[in-house]
Amino acid sequence: MSANSQDMRFKAGEMKGQADVKKDQIADKATNAAQSCKDSMQNAGEQVKNKAQGAADTMKDAMGMNKK
């Protein structure tokens, strides 16, 4: 095998390794972004739920319907 052929194979392997690392980094970033979005949406949902419950309690208090 010629030195040039070995060098080309080495460089091809090196480039594949770098591409694999980059792919993994991008996948990790996408996973982190998806998790962050999920967390944000869950937080927003909880806030809406709590505000709706507060509004319902306020209306019940105003109408004398809230059992204490």
TrEMBL record:
Residue segments, region Disordered: 1-68
Annotated Polar residues bias: 32-45
Residue ranges with Basic and acidic residues bias: 8-27
Residues in coiled coil: none
Taxonomic superkingdom: Eukaryota
Signal peptide: none
InterPro entries noted in UniProt: LEA1/2/D7/KIN2 (IPR039624)
Protein name, entry field: Stress-induced protein KIN2-like
Gene source species: Acorus calamus
